[in-house]
């Protein structure tokens, strides 16, 4: 390292050290430290305006300033100044290697490290006694893992352990390990799926999927609120995607009991992640933080789901704080033009600066965000129940082994333009046992104006009857249904079948003459066979035409069949005469 750089690094470390000592002295005198002042001073001292790892500064008098920001982009490396600052913070927060003490964790087999944060490390482990995979979170040991750190750690465990909800990661066991019990840990559900953030990074979610996720997450948060727990750090990385695509809220590390005055944080403390925290939380006004604050963060999560970025993004953390408290977010429709207007309205209402102008509760948000999907989901579930009645009993029994977990709208081909089509995902014994069904709208036949109305009242039934009649072997789950309630208020007919992507086509622009002739013969054969199964004498006569080709073919077949019968009988007599098969005569 050049001398100038080395000198600059030493000066930076000295500045940070002096800064920390100054904060500790001021806190000891009873001064209330302002978070933004602390952050500005840190940025100036380190020369890094945008730190990209969690950072915690502990002060006397139970004061702490915690700032979590987005992780660095792939391939990015922090500056030397930030590495030195990070090292100092790791030392302050007990930044050892955090490896579990094996002697106190005899029932757990360590598989791998999953994640590492400012307070704890998460491991994937196997619980031997129950032979199951769980996640184990352990507090990072060190000199600053004092009573408050331990209390905060157990506060997270307690908050999550008391929240048994299908969309909240469940906590199982809390314990201590190590010679002096210095390693505190708890175990919870291990979710193998990605985080919501990972999904968004691949591609922003469509409006319907985002609304569905938000509604389920909001209900889970309302469940927590009803039991006196605020999350205070809702963000896409704290939402995992479990089996069947279910969102699961995790990381209650900053959770707080509603109405509990013995907080682990005090007024003036910045907690959470700047891009997702509401203005009152960013300003350190913790006495104003309540259920409406989590509603704001849910809106920020929705914003990123549909746009691919948080509502506030800046080159450095100070600008993010300023935007959160002063600026209005860019309307999400500017970043995602196809976003439904209703969803944008929901998103922006959550992100109101004035907490009184947000949704009164997470339940109100869930009700409004989930309304379009739930109404649609209700219609699809009703269609599914009605459809099952059109199946044979044995096939109905087979279908009962599967449960519906997801649905999506399918873009139809040119020949089906204007019709509704939905794809249902059902799962059997596990996620490796999928069944896909297609519910497709059936409209009146194009021949109806010329041949009169169908004998079937339900056009879906007409399609199913036609397929069963014409196909040698039909789909065993082929059925139909009529819906009296759809999203646009119109009654519609549908038919249901398994979704198989076995279609193929022939490029007629490049096909050779011989290939075209064979293609025509195959098409004619299939049509003739299908119509022959229908028993329609007019259709059959039309295909036979006025010539005697069919008559000759039928006569030739009859003669050939008779000749084969004679050969078979002769072979039978020969075998009997030679004694190769026993023959016994019985009286009439």
Strands of the widest sheet, in order across it, are: 3-4-5-7-6
Number of strands: 16
Residue runs with pLDDT of under 50 for 5 or more positions: 1-14, 48-103, 261-269
Estimate nothing, just give the exact number of structural domains.
4
Q: Strand fraction band?
A: 15-25%
Notes on the protein architecture:
The protein is an alpha+beta fold and about 600 residues long. The protein folds into four domains: about 5-90, no CATH class; about 100-370, Transferase(Phosphotransferase) domain 1 (Transferase(Phosphotransferase), domain 1, Orthogonal Bundle), CATH 1.10.510.10; about 390-500, no CATH class; about 515-545. It contains 18 helices and 16 strands. The chain has helices at about 5-30, 35-45, 80-90, 145-160, 195-200, 205-225, 280, 290-305, 315-325, 330-335, 340-350, 360-390, 395-400, 450, 460-470, 515-535, 535-545, 550-575, and strands at about 55-60, 65, 110-115, 120-125, 130-140, 170-175, 185-190, 230, 240, 245-250, 255, 405-410, 420-425, 435-440, 480-485, 490-500. The strands form five sheets. It has a five-stranded antiparallel sheet, with helices on one face. It has a five-stranded antiparallel sheet with strand order 12-13-14-16-15. The longest helix is centred in the last third of the chain and has 29 residues, at about 550-575. It is elongated and about 120 Å long. Mean pLDDT is about 75; it is low at about 1-15, about 50-105 and about 260-270.
């Amino acid at each position: 390292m050049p001398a100038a750089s080395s000198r600059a690094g030493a000066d930076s470390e000295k500045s940070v050290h002096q800064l920390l000592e100054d904060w500790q002295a001021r806190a000891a005198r009873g001064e209330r430290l302002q978070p933004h002042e602390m952050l500005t001073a840190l940025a100036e001292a380190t020369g890094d305006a945008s730190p990209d790892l969690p950072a915690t500064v502990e002060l006397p008098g139970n004061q702490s300033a915690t700032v979590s920001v987005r992780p660095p982009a792939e391939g990015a490396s922090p500056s030397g100044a930030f590495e030195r600052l990070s090292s100092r913070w790791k030392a302050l927060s007990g930044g050892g290697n955090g490896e579990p003490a094996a002697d106190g964790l005899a029932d757990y087999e360590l598989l791998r490290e999953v994640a590492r944060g400012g307070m704890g490390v998460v491991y994937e482990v196997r619980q031997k006694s129950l032979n199951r995979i769980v996640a184990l979170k352990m507090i990072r040991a060190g000199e600053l893992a004092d009573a408050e750190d331990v209390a905060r750690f157990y506060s997270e465990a307690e908050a999550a352990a008391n929240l048994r909800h299908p969309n909240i990661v469940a906590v199982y066991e809390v314990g201590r390990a190590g010679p002096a019990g210095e390693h505190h840990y708890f175990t919870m559900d291990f979710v193998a799926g990605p985080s919501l953030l990972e999904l968004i990074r691949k591609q922003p979610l469509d409006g319907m999927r985002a609304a569905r996720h938000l509604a389920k997450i909001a209900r889970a948060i309302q469940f927590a609120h009803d039991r006196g727990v605020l999350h205070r750090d809702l963000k896409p990385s704290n939402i995992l995607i479990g089996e069947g695509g279910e969102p699961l809220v995790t990381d209650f590390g900053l959770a707080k009991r509603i109405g509990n005055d013995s907080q682990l944080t005090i007024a003036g403390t910045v907690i959470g992640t700047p891009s997702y925290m509401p203005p009152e939380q960013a300003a350190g006004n913790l006495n104003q933080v309540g259920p409406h604050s989590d509603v704001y963060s849910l809106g920020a999560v929705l914003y990123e789901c549909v746009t691919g970025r948080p509502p506030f993004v800046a080159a450095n953390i100070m600008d993010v704080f300023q935007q959160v408290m002063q600026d209005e977010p860019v309307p999400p429709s500017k970043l995602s033009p196809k976003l439904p207007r209703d969803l944008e309205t929901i998103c922006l209402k959550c992100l109101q600066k004035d907490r009184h102008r947000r949704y009164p509760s997470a339940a109100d948000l869930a009700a409004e965000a989930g309304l379009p999907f739930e109404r649609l989901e209700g219609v699809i579930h009703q269609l599914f129940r009605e459809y099952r009645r059109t199946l044979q009993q044995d096939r109905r029994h087979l279908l009962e082994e599967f449960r519906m977990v997801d649905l999506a709208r399918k873009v139809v081909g040119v020949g089906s333009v204007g019709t509704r089509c939905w794809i249902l995902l059902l799962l059997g014994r596990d996620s490796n046992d999928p069944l896909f069904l297609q519910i497709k709208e059936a409209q009146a036949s194009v021949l109806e104006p010329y041949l009169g109305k169908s004998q079937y009242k339900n056009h879906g039934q007409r399609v199913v009857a036609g397929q069963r009649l014409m196909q040698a072997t039909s789909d065993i789950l082929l059925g139909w249904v009529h819906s009296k309630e759809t999203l646009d208020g119109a009654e519609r007919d549908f038919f249901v079948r398994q979704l198989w992507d076995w279609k193929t086509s022939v490029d007629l622009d490049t096909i050779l003459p011989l290939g075209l002739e064979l293609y025509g013969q195959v098409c004619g054969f299939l049509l003739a066979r299908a119509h022959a199964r229908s028993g329609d004498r007019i259709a059959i006569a039309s295909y036979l035409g006025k010539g005697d080709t069919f008559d000759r073919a039928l006569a030739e077949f009859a003669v050939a069949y008779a000749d084969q019968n004679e050969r078979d009988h002769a072979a039978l007599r020969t075998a009997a005469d030679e004694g190769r098969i026993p023959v016994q005569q019985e009286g009439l």
